[in-house]
Amino acid sequence: MADVFWSAERDRRLRDEAIAWLKLRTNDGAVPLTRSEIKDFSFDGDTFALQATQQGIRKPRQLEAALSIQTVYRSPGQPRPYEDTMGSDGLLRYMWRGEDPEIPDNMALRAALENDLPLIWFIGVGMAPAIFQAVCPVYIVSEEPDLKRFVLAPFDEEAFLPRVAGQDTVIQETVKRYLTRETKIRLHQPVFRSTVLRAYEDRCSVCNLGHRVLLDAAHIVPDSHELGIASVVNGLALCKIHHAAFDSSILGIRPDLVVQIRPDLLEEIDGPMLQYGLKERHGQKLMMLPNRKVEQPRADLLEIAYDRFLNATPA
Ligand SMILES: [Zn+2]
């Protein structure tokens, strides 16, 4: 039986409803979802699969273009089967499947490009169970056939790009910085947060507080630093107070994972937050760490952060 594609209107409505549903289910991107949670979506009265069963794209037979792409979680150090990279223009790259531009998956992605259709990107942030950060909408904005890949923007590029002449390098630089920042906010930050909080089981590493809304995924080494990688090994789940204390060198973490508090605060007498929240953590081991060794903080990164703490601390 030949496939009968849905009308452009119905296709568009499916995408819009799916994206609205995901925003609701994830509390606007704040929480990741398991495969079975993603399976709860229904459209026009029937459940409708949004996600491929494995790595790669999902193109429902009723649609001409891809609906979603999926990148599975890989532990730090493990290569991904398809390397997704950020280009110098601030946009993301998604590799073709295989070498042949005409195979169905690549055709389905090209159809999304040609028809300017929004997609969903499910990015793995943990295994067993597999959980995914849903990033949407994502648009395919161009293709680089010689490099066998597509260019993706995790936002509606049309709505974001000022209509400017392409020659002015100052404007080009500004646009590039702008796109880089938007990609960071819409894709890298939520993926980093979900990966880190999942690894620390939604608990503050310093005090074990277990309320997700009070937790941040802190960078051990700031992401402006050359080693400031957006990987779980450069992350710590910290409550808001301990995050601010860490960033301002009130609290340091020794490379052997023991908490240190700035000496002058240890002398200070004040209320319960200072007493229990800070002073009594001094000399204590971190209370929560990822179960899997490969996801634990990297020693060289802790070393850099601890040097910063010591240098900021008057002896
Ligand atoms: Zn805490």
UniProtKB/TrEMBL annotation:
InterPro entries membership: HNH_nuc
Domain HNH nuclease: 204-253
Molecular function GO labels: endonuclease activity
Record-linked Pfam families: HNH_2
TM region(s), chain numbering: 119-141
Keywords for the protein's UniProt record, in alphabetical order: Endonuclease, Hydrolase, Membrane, Nuclease, Transmembrane, Transmembrane helix
Name of protein: HNH endonuclease
